[in-house]
Design brief:
The protein has about 230 residues and is mainly beta. About 5% of the residues lie in helices and about 35% in strands. It contains three helices and twelve strands. A hairpin with a 3-residue loop joins β2 and β3. The N and C termini lie far apart (about 80 Å).
Length: about 230
């Protein structure tokens, strides 16, 4: 007599059909990217080195990878603290163009810190995910729209790891050139203006719904990148 009784197979559930849309403010899921392949070290302290690379490029934006490398004798990285609400001491990064336009992002990437939208063509820098452990941690970010070719400056600061504000020049020409080589694989429909319930829920509507969006307008004065009363931390 067998030990196990025969089981009755349940009919498989039919999965709910998903509709995929082309979100204009996110990295396209239906394009092959151009490979920019440029990177710079933006911060260095006794126990920490941070490298930023422009990897994938598209006509509407570019994907960045932020890599933190930790010395084995240094303090460990509190990964959970990095995703805590915006605070002093956390990782901060920004891009400044020669005409004063800028994009700024923080380690406290949280929906509660969404700024009021500014008219285009301001730039936006959003964090899309992270991972790592041990001696290296990596964050991905999305910059949109695609910045113009030519010189720019990456600003970085991470007080918790002993890195004060740095300014690193970067030439974005290879990023723009790489974007021209990206191509579409197949079309996706645009985001509907009034999505129906059940067909297009909140999380489906915006892949960035769980991520904050940071925007920054060009300074009104000629004070450059210095903090003033209009800054988020001012």
């Amino acid at each position: 007599m067998p030990f196990f009784a025969e089981l009755v197979d349940e009919p498989p559930e039919q999965p709910t059909a998903q509709v995929h849309y082309d979100h204009p403010d996110d990295r396209p899921m239906h394009w092959v990217p151009g490979e920019a392949g440029i990177g710079v070290v933006v911060g260095r302290a006794e126990h920490t080195v941070v490298h930023v690379a422009f990897q994938e490029a598209y006509p509407r934006g570019a994907a960045l990878e932020i890599l933190a490398l930790l010395h084995p004798d240094g303090p460990e990285l509190d990964h959970m603290r990095l995703h805590h609400e915006h605070r002093n001491g956390g990782m901060r990064m920004g891009l400044l163009l020669p005409d004063g336009r800028r994009a700024e992002s923080y380690s406290g990437w949280h929906p509660a810190h969404v700024r009021e939208p500014h008219p285009e063509p301001d730039f936006h820098l959003v964090q899309r995910g992270s991972g790592g452990g041990g001696l290296s941690f990596e964050w991905s970010a999305w910059l949109w729209p695609l910045p113009p070719a030519g010189p720019a400056t990456l600003y970085f600061r991470w007080d918790d790891r002993g890195i004060g504000e740095t300014a690193t020049p970067v030439d974005l020409t290879p990023v723009v050139e790489a974007a021209a080589s990206a191509y579409e694989l197949w079309p996706l429909p645009p985001v509907p203006e009034h999505p129906g319930d059940g067909e297009f829920g909140w999380f489906a509507y915006s892949p960035l719904s769980g991520q904050p969006r940071f925007t920054a307008a060009a300074p009104d004065s000629a004070s450059g990148d210095a903090a003033d009363a209009g800054d988020e931390d001012g």
